[in-house]
């Protein structure tokens, strides 16, 4: 079949999703065509398995997916984790308690395997951020110390997030975890060495050498994945550094990027 032994992994926000956080009808049709003709489609996102499905109606997911920005490899068909990386919560607790107390303009979210926990004050929460990261609940950080922590998300102004990043050095944790800015308003903490790229390596071990992997993204958290894919693709709306390193540049996320990859780039 036309796309046999090819996997297409797509970032969600800014790539698969348009500026209204929707998958266009052209992208849906192209993905169905790709899968029906032997290809395997999956997502590579910072979102969780429970949150991401809210955006994927009528999108056939047939490949293992990279979630939590590399924190997990997930099988949507079997609804289980293939691989999971966890943060050292006891190393981070004092730092996070300080951030919650002293940098109140920044929201702090901790992701476990089945819940997004909002551990900063509910009264100071941005309703739009809360709505976009469901399922979630407000809770005291001390009450989830025994939960598995996959990633931590800070949301706030660039100035405040830079302050949080600086405090990581003051609390001597900067070399014990990985960190990445995933947008102008998001800073994420991940287990040391974890990224979409590191989980792409895990995926390759899982599926073997028979598959050619295409990966597409638009932001800092996609860099390693694009570098390590067999074919790395940046969207037209991507950061310049991604477009400089990519093998191909697709249409923008508002111009049916995935359809452009399937119908044009994969046939070049």
TrEMBL record:
Name the GO cellular-component terms.
cytosol
GO MF, one term, reads: phosphatase activity
- The molecule here is called Cof subfamily protein (Haloacid dehalogenase superfamily)/HAD superfamily hydrolase (TIGR01484 family)
Q: Which organism is it from?
A: Mobilisporobacter senegalensis
Q: What is the lineage of its organism?
A: Bacteria, Bacillati, Bacillota, Clostridia, Lachnospirales
